[in-house]
Amino acid sequence: FGVFSFILRLLASLALGLILIYLFPGFVTGPVEIVRGSALKAGVLGFLFLIVIPILSLIMLITMFGWSLSVLLILLLALAVLIATVPVKLLAGEMIYAKIFKKEAGKIVYYLTGAVVFAIVYEIPFLGGLIQFIALLVGLGALGIWISKKAKPES
What whole-number distance in Å separates Cα of residue 111 and Cα of residue 29? Predict the structure, then answer.
């Protein structure tokens, strides 16, 4: 059961990341630069998103007019949580690959490296879950910062 679920999670992570990198390269590289610039800021903001959005959604769910927006917010949060670790894995893979091989490669090779390393690290009891949660927070915050920058009109 353990090896099969490990391989299944790794393949799902690889499929999601490779599809996002191939179809939406700007969507993945934008948050990578934010994580590279300030991972702590992104992590704190990701934690706030993870706390505030469900509470806000529950409050809106109570009102008669806010229930549809509430459902939309929860769905968007679920989607963001699903894809949040992709930029973190891409950046980690880039850093690991550059340290080991001392040369550059493409985003797909970086993501493959990061996804495999993270999949192995996730299997460490307790520490793996903590690292997975931190990667989720950092990625979620980076996505939030990147989307807010994209939503602002340029002056």
Answer: 11
